[in-house]
Amino acid sequence: MRNCIIAQSGGPTSVINSSVMGVVAKNNKIKYYDNVFAGLNGIEGILQEKFFNLSNLTNEQIETIKYTPAAALGSCRYKLKDVTKCTEEYDLLFDIMDKHNIETFFYAGGNDSMDTVNKLSKYAELKNRNLKFFGIPKTIDNDLPIMDHTPGYGSAAKFIASTILENYLDTNVYSKKNVFIVETMGRDTGWLAASATAARINNKCVVDYIYLPESIFNEEQFLNNVKKKLETQDSVFVVVSEGIRNAEGTFISELNAESKKDTFGHVQLGGVGAYLKHILIEKGIVSKVRSLEISTSQRCAMHCASQRDIDEAFSLGEAALDYSSYGENGMLVALKRTSSFPYFCEPIIIHTSKIANQIKYVPTDWINTESNHLNDSAFEYISPLIQGQPNFVLENGLPKFLTLRELIS
Amino acid sequence: MRNCIIAQSGGPTSVINSSVMGVVAKNNKIKYYDNVFAGLNGIEGILQEKFFNLSNLTNEQIETIKYTPAAALGSCRYKLKDVTKCTEEYDLLFDIMDKHNIETFFYAGGNDSMDTVNKLSKYAELKNRNLKFFGIPKTIDNDLPIMDHTPGYGSAAKFIASTILENYLDTNVYSKKNVFIVETMGRDTGWLAASATAARINNKCVVDYIYLPESIFNEEQFLNNVKKKLETQDSVFVVVSEGIRNAEGTFISELNAESKKDTFGHVQLGGVGAYLKHILIEKGIVSKVRSLEISTSQRCAMHCASQRDIDEAFSLGEAALDYSSYGENGMLVALKRTSSFPYFCEPIIIHTSKIANQIKYVPTDWINTESNHLNDSAFEYISPLIQGQPNFVLENGLPKFLTLRELIS
Lengths: 409, 409
Fold this sequence. Notes:
The structure is a homodimer. Chain A is an alpha/beta fold. The first copy, chain A, folds into 2 domains: 3-139 and 302-356 and 391-408, Rossmann fold, CATH 3.40.50.450; 153-299, 3-Layer(aba) Sandwich (Rossmann fold). Chain A has helices spanning 16-30, 42-47, 59-66, 88-99, 111-126, 153-171, 191-194, 219-232, 252-256, 272-282, 307-325, 376-382, 404-408, and strands at 3-8, 35-39, 51-53, 102-109, 132-137, 178-184, 200-201, 204-205, 209-211, 235-241, 260-261, 267-268, 289-293, 331-340, 343-351, 394-395, 398-399. In chain A, the strands form 5 sheets. A 7-stranded mixed β-sheet of chain A has the order 3-2-1-4-5-14-15, with helices on both faces. In chain A, helix 1 (16-30) packs antiparallel against helix 3 (59-66). The longest helix of chain A is centred in the middle third of the chain and has 19 residues, at 153-171. The first copy, chain A, starts with a strand and ends with a helix.
C-alpha cells in the first residue's frame, strides 16, 4: 500500500483547487498511489488526522472542484515550530504518515508553505525516514523567485484589470472633476497593482498613475501629479498597492489605520486608498474621490478567472504527481516561460530551499522614472496570463461550486 | 426631416447602453427617423447642443457599445427647475429640438429621469408643441413601480450573488470564528441585497442573514443572532443594504460616517458594513470580521452581466422606438412578466406620471418573521433575471468596450 496526501495552506486563490484536482486526476490515470488523501485545513488538520479520500471522487466532482475558488480542502496559517528548537510536531507528522502508509506529502501554498516543505524534507532526510515532501506553488502575489509566475496570479490580475476598466467607464460618465482610487493587495511587491496595465481601451492603458511597493511613495509628488492631471481631464484614475511606503519606510496605510501582525509576523495592511482619498480632499485638490478596495474578491473571483491560469494550475498538479513518482524530495513544480509570442510555459522543478523566504519584485526597468507608471514590458508579461474565459458549469445562472464541506456533511 | 435624440441620466448600469443601441438598431431597420442623435451628458449636454449622430455608427460599433457598461453617452444628475416656477430651460430645450428637427426625446434613466420626461411632455402639450418625450427605464435599484423589474437589476444581482458565493468560499477556508459582511447599494429598497438569495450551493442559500431597508434594523437582535450562530458554525455570512435604519428612522450608516446629500436631496450612504464590523468587535462577539463594500462594481461589472438583462434592455430600446413612431408621448416602456416557468416578459407602456416619485418595495410577505432573511419567493423572482453569460467580444483577454469619448476624440 502506497498513499499520498495533499493539503492547502495560506490565502486562497481562484485556481488552487485546480492544482489539487490535477494531482488527483493524474493519479487516477497512472495509479502510482493507491489513495490520494486530502488533509483538511492544511498541516493543522493532518496533525489531527482529519483526512478525506480524494480517490473516491467522481469525474464530475473533480471537474466541479477544479472550477471552485478558495481552498476546497480548507486552509490554515499554521507555522511549524523551528526544527532546531522543537521536533515534536515533525515526529508526530512522520508517525501519522507512516501509520496511513503515506509516502508523499504535497503542499499547495505560497512562500511560507514552501518553507515548511523545505524543513520537513530536510528533517526526513536527517532522520532517514522514507517520506517525501513536494511543493505546489500558489499565490496571487506572484512573488516567488526563479519561476515565471505563480498559479493564481493570472486570475487575480484579470479580475483587477476588469474591475479597473469597468470602474474607469463608470467614473467617467459625469463631467465633474473626480478621482477614482483602486487599492489592490500586495504587501511587498506590486505584481497585482501592475495588472492595471492590462486595463486598456483602444490599446491605451486607462489608468493615470500606478504606485507599487517597489518604489518610495512621495505624497507631495502624488498630490501635485493629480492636481496637474485634473487641469486637462475631468477624471483621474489611480491604482495603488496596499504595501506602498514613504521615504521613512512607513506603510502609507499605517498613517491611516491601525495595523496588526499575522501569525507569520507580517503586518496586515489595508486602507491606503482611504488615506489617499482623505488627503486629496483635505488638501483641497478635489472634492469628489471614490476609493475601492478590491479586497478578497481578487483572490476568489472564479467568475472572472483566466482559463489559462486554471489550466496551468491543473498541469502543475499533474506534474507534481509525476515528479514525485520519480522519487523527488523537497522540490516544487513551477512554470518556466519559453516563449511569449506565441506564449508557452513548461513545468520545471526547483528545490524549495531556493524559494523559501525569497521575494521576487517587479523589475525596476519596468517602472517609469517618476515611479508612477509602468512601461509596455509589464503589459507584455501580464497579457498572456489573463487569457481565456473560464469554462465552469452554470447552476441557477452562477458558477457551480463544490468543496469537501458539502461532501463531508 | 424628422430626427430624434437620446440621452442618459443618473447612475450607470451595465446595460443602459444596450437600450440606447436598441433604439439605434431599430431605427436603422425601419428608418422612421432620419437621424438618431445622442445628447452628451444627459439633458445638461442637450441644453448646450452637444450632440453626436448615432446613425453613423457601424454595426460593429453598435455591437461593442451594446456590451459596454456605464453611460457611453455620458450622464448627469441635472434636475430641471420646477415648471411652475421657471420655464426658461423648458422653452430653451424645445427651441433646440425644433432647430435640429428633433421630434422625439428618449431619456434613459431612473425615477428622477421619468419625472423629467413627465414634466417635459406635459409642458409640451400645454404649449401645443409637436414634441414627444419617451422614457426608457434603467436602474440597478429595481425600485420603479408597476413593471416587473428594471433593466440593469439582473446584471447587478448576478454580480452581487457571484461575489457573495465566492467570498463565502474564501471566508470558510480557515477553521477560525469569523464574520463576513457584504454591503450592497439600495437606499430605500432591498432589491439588491435580496439578490443574496441567489448565492447557493446545493440549492441552499449560503448567506445566514440578509437585512433590507424594508424592515427596522434591531442592533441588539443582530448581535444576538450572530453570537448564537457562531456557536454552531465557524463563519457567519451577513448581507446588508446600505439603507437600513433603526426604530428611530436613523440610517445605521449615519451612526458611523458623515453623510451628505446629492442634487436631488437624497442622503448619500455607505459605511453600514464598517459600522456592523465595528460593533461586532467592540461588543466582543468575534474578533475577526471582514466587511466588503461592493461599491460601484455592482452597477458596471459587464464581465459578469446577465445576458438576459442585456437582451431585455436592448428590446426595450427597440420597443421605445416603435411606440414613439405610433405617436405616444410622456410614456415609458417597461417589462411585464407573463410567466415565470418558463420565464417570459413582454414590453408594455406606462405613463411616466404613474412612475415618477413612486417606489416599489420588496414585498413584505417575502421577508421572514425575524426580518433577517427571505423566503423562496425572492429566489423564484430573481433567478430568471440572472441567466446567461454575456456575449461580449474579448480584446487582450478582457471585454472590449467603446464609448463616445473614443469616437469623438
